[in-house]
Amino acid sequence: MGSKNKLKRFKENETFTNVFQPTRDELTSGKFTLKGQWRKDVFKNENPIVLELGCGKGEYTVGLAQRYPEKNFIGIDIKGARFWRGAKTALEENIPNAAFMRTQIELIEFVFNANEVDEIWITFPDPQIKYKRTKHRLTNLKFLERYQSILKPNGLVHLKTDSEFMHGYTLGLLHGLGYEVLYANHNVYKLEGSPEEVTEIQTFYENQYLENDKAITYIRFKIN
Description:
By secondary structure, the protein is an alpha/beta fold. The chain contains 9 helices and 8 strands.
């Protein structure tokens, strides 16, 4: 993507009513006014809140929002030029239960109150295989603690990935911590009984993986 195109998207994001872009200082200083108020001030309802972390182009956030109008969805990514597409689609197709937020996922505790979030989706994260980069792995212990701090008791987390390494790493960690794994599948498109929201909503990159016959894995678990 050219720099001109990126700038155009950044400018458009600033005009979108479903995009929120607080500064790091605004979040860490406690000045972010939507914390604890997402239902009331953004969605104008009391429906459950579901996050997609590392939402990329926003296809999954939009797809879930269309599938579950009785829930509120927020796609979170640091790359606003990417989720521009999802935000624009949600506005064009009048999907009021889809919003987007530009921030780093490690700041998530400054974005939501305790018990404010019902579910979290992590879709195709960078597996961060190199040892020195494990602190950025989105299912490591530190991140799981962050999720626990904003999730309701027994809140659900979904991990969908093309990385067998990430799948195995996460399963091992969950079993070691004693977290409840509700569902685990190492090839959702080949094995019967996969949840429909896992197989019927596909991202741009997921389609590429499938064209190359790469297995897509899925875990659903509780942080308790």
